[in-house]
Every structure is written in structure tokens, then in C-alpha cells.
Amino acid sequence: MAETKSPISVYALGGLCEVGKNTYCIESDRSLIIIDAGVRFPDANLPGVSYVIPNYSKLNHSRQKIKALIITHGHEDHIGAIPFLVQRVYIPVIYAPKLAAALIRHKLEDARVRDKVNIVEYDSDTILNIDDFTVSFFYVTHSIPDAYGVCVDTPQGRIIHTGDFKIDLTPVGKQIELNKISRLGSEGVDLLLSDSTNAEIEGYTPSETNVLNSINDIFEGTPGRIILSTFSSNVSRIQQIVEVAVKHGRYIAILGRSMEYVVQVARDLGYIKIPDSRIIPINEVNDYKANEICVLCTGSQGEPMAALSRIANGEHKDLSIIPGDTVVFSSSAIPGNGVLIERVVNQLVRKGCEVTTNSILYSVHSSGHPSKQELRLMLRLVNPKYFMPIHGDYRMLKIHGKIAESLGIPEDHIFVLENGESIVLYNHEIHRGPKYDAFPVYIDGKDISGLSEAVIKDREILKEDGLVSIVVGINSKTKTIKSAPKVISYAFTADKQIIDEITTITTKTINTILENSQSFNELKTYIKDVVSTYVYRKTERRPMVVPVILDEK
Fold first, then answer.
1. How deeply is 269 buried, as exposed, middle or buried, from its count of CB atoms within 10 A (0-12, 13-18, 19+)?
2. Which DSSP symbol is given to 334?
3. 8-203+367-443 belongs to which homologous superfamily?
């Protein structure tokens, strides 16, 4: 490690005061490493938005310093923004676990990223010397294999980032490396960054083996077809499902593009084991008896274009619901998706099938994140001097901070930050640093340019209040109206009297403005103001008002 007197800045461009788009930065005066590059999925309040990603302007300003992107695991909220990041900022190398690396390669290929991206795989024994930083790793239990925490040794002190984890003593797959975490803690840790997603929940997060038992009960008690929906990236859950399906003599049909790809990659790497003889194409499902079929599909969040929604709507070309089917949602609702999920559930029930969701009766989902007792245990093992809760809404971060305080970490050593706010580590002491731009960027489709807040607000207005367009022809030379204003409304219902009044006030406004020789832009502004004021007074709604002026000179 090179000797330097440079202070070390730590900040997040995403992942604080939100669940998603995790992007954390550790920076000296000459080196910068990034931990994770995730997306946040839009809720119903972001119409037309495919993804929300961080603003990368800070990274652009520090582009000469960037040495590496380090990925903790392969979930979308940790790798989903990589295609956008590498097209905006040069990333010399991406270090990722084996499964995440395979998913990233596919993601870059799917996004048609032309520039070659250097991806290097790491494991628990890897040690990276990256200029001012020495980086090592420890295995953690999560809902996807190959999940790691990161230890970054800097000239000013040691930083540990837990990644997403839970302390599951009966996991599906490898055990969390508690001994390694404890050793790092005993050597001295200056700053801990720790997952806060379940900080509100007391006790321990249930083991994945609880889910296995419930899934087994469902298969034993279901005579018809089973359609099971979960996150495509929840590899551990998928492995449990296919094990139970094979045990009960069912054939497995995989539905959904992302599900098909993840299952194939996980099979190639040995994380999911399904005999080839037990996998059938979705278009052959009807060739088998109902009690021989298990369909594994995407759409557990009610996404309109996902496989399960299309099945529920009767729009899928290969699979339709028949009476006697059982649909299982093996996931929890992402905040904001509850209405979408309920809509799909109701459509499925209308078609005559049974629907099972996570409940006291059936534990068909277990979180991959730590509850309070696990957070306490991690804090005890690491025993940090300073603490910064990450990955969670503000209330989650705040509660996690209070947990740390209850274990003896002084309040002024706990930093509950927002995206863009920084802390500075120097000679094993930490103080607050500057704040950087970290507003969200909204992605529509695969357009990497992003949408502005103004566009999002306009879409929200259109969704809630509709649009009123006023088309009028004028002669700018004679300063007269050539064709009377025509009012067209979309998603805004108004009676004839209101439409007539809009026409009248628009005509008066145009005549007044033309007499004073104002510009077209000013004319549009005046029309917009007077019509908006009138419509709100009459309807208490604020539709978008769009004047269209045609010059017929």
C-alpha cells in the first residue's frame, strides 16, 4: 500500500434513504473505488420509467482517480446500473464474484455495450492491492450465492462494508464467515457500513429452511398444476423450489426471459441442480398431467409485462389458467408494488385458481436481510469505532443507528447520511465532509441519457389530471385570428360549457396580446396561465395545458 497523507472520503451516490441503486464510494486524493452499481425499480409514482439510477456527475469529475468497481453480489440493486455506468464513466476493471460476473457479462451484452469491459472474478481468499487501498473479502449468507462483504484497508484506517447479508445458521449453500468477520473486528475497524433493510424487525430473519418446509407442504397438498413466481435473481429460493418439484415427480417449465437466463447461468456454475430430463418447454405443458407440472416464472411484483401478469390477463400464448391451478408468490412486496400485486392476485382468483402468498400459514418467503438481532451481532463482531448505516429508507437507517448507540457506540460516532453527503476518515478519526450532487436519474427503456425531474412531473400531471390542448391559427402579419381555438382534452373530462368558456377566454387573451405585439412564447405563456386558472377554479383539477399556435401568414 502506497504511503500517503491523503484523507479518505466515504459517500454514497445511491442506497441511502431508499432501498435500491446501491453505489458507495471510497476516495483518496489520487484513487477512487466504487462498491456496487445498482438500480432502483420505479414504483407507480414514476410512470414510464424503467429504472432509477444514480447521478454520476461526481464520478465524471473524478474520472482520473477511478481504479475499480467492486461488486458484492449479483442482485439488480447492486449490478443493474453497470451498463449505464460504463457508458458514462470509464471503469478500468470490475471485480465480482463468479455468479455476479456471469450475470454482468450477459447484462452488458444485452445492453449492446460495445466497449470491452474488464471483469475479474474474486473469492473469499482474494486480496486486491489497488493503489491506496488493500481490499479483502468475507463470504456472507444472502438470497443469492456468491455474496460477499468487503474490507478496505486504507492509510487512514480500516473500513468494512457488509454487503447484503443475513446470519442464517442453516442456510441453503455456504455458511457466513463469522470467524473471519470476528478476526477483522478484533484487529480493529474504524468504520462499518452495514445493511439496514430489516432494521425495524425484532429478532432474527427466518432461515431459508423454513421456506423449504412450506414449499414442500404446498407440493404435497396440491393435486393440480403449481405456478410458482419469485425473483429471478433469488437463486437460493429457485434451488429449493426445483429440489422439491423433482422430489414430487413434477416436470419444470421455466417462463420469463430473466428467469430462463439466470437459471441457465446458475446451472452452468453448479448453483442450481436440475436433471435435464425434468425440464420441459413451456409449450409442452399441456402434454402432461396437471399433477406433473411446476411452472417457475417471473412477475411476483405484479409487473404488467412480466410472465405472471400476462398469464393472469389471458395474454400469454403458451399458458392459460385452468381451474385447479395453484399460484404461489414466493416473495415479499417491494414498497409501492402492493396495488399491482393485488390486481394480479384478483385476476388469478377470478380465473378459478388458488393463490398462496407469504403468511402465517405458509412461510413461502424469507428475507435475505438481517433483522435487529443479526444487526446487533454484526456490530458486536466488527466492533467499529464509527458506524454508517446503509441500504435502507431513512427510518431504517435511523433505527439501525439507534441499535448501534444502544451497544455503546457514541451518538456523535454514528452517521445517518443522505446520498451525496460524505464523511472523511483521517488518522482513525471521522468528521463530516462536503456534499455532492446525487439526485436520481430516470431511465426510459435503454436510453442512457435519462429523464429530468420536469419530465417526471409532467408525466405525473398527465396521469392524475390529464391534458388540455388548445390549437389556434393566427396571422402574425395582420395580428388576427385565422382559425378559432379548438380545445382537445385527454384524460380530462369537461362539459360543453367549460370547453366553450376556454375557447372564449383564449380568444380574448390572443387578441389582447397581439395588440401589444408580444412574442409567440409570451402568447403561449399567457394562454397557459389564464386557462389553467380558469380550469382549476371550475374543476379543482390542474391538467397540463398545451397551447399550439399555427402562424397562417
1. middle
2. P
3. Ribonuclease Z/Hydroxyacylglutathione hydrolase-like (3.60.15.10)
Helix, strand or coil, per DSSP, at residue 392: strand
355 DSSP β-pair partners:
327
- C-alpha span between 354 and 251 (Å, rounded): 20
DSSP structure class, residue 491:
S
Task: Find residue 548's DSSP bridge partners.
Answer: 471
Helix (H) or strand (E) holding 517: none
What is the Cα–Cα distance from 170 to 497, expressed in whole angstroms?
Answer: 70
Secondary structure (3-state) at 250: coil
**Per-residue model confidence (pLDDT) at position 45:** 63
The ranges of the chain annotated as CATH 3.40.50.10710 are 208-356
User: Rounded distance, CA 355 to CA 290, Å?
Assistant: 16
Task: Please provide the DSSP assignment of 316-343 as one string.
Answer: -SS----TT-EEEE-S-PPTT-HHHHHH
Domain with CATH 3.60.15.10 in the chain: 8-203+367-443
CA 354 to each of CA 156, 246, 350: distance values in angstroms, whole numbers, following the listed order: 58, 22, 10
pLDDT of residue 361: 46
**Which neighbouring-strand residues pair with 545?**
468
Distances in Å between the alpha carbon of 524 and those of 485, 546, 548?
A: 13, 8, 8
Q: Which portions of the chain are predicted below pLDDT 50?
A: 1-2, 360-361
Cell of 226: 403449481
The helix-helix angle for 178-187 and 372-382 (nearest 10°) equals 50
DSSP state of 50: -
Catalytic residues: 195, 369
Q: What is the CATH number of domain 466-551?
A: 3.10.20.580
pLDDT in tens, 272-327: 999 999 999 999 999 999 999 999 998 887 777 788 888 888 888 889 999 899 99
Bridge partners of 253, per DSSP, are: 295
Assessment of whether the complete model's pTM goes beyond 0.90? no
For residues 484 and 496, the answer to whether their CB atoms sit within 8 Å is no
Residue type, 109: E
Bridge partners (DSSP) listed for residue 23 = 14
Residues 6+ apart with CB under 8 A from 321: 311, 312, 314, 327, 348, 351, 352, 353
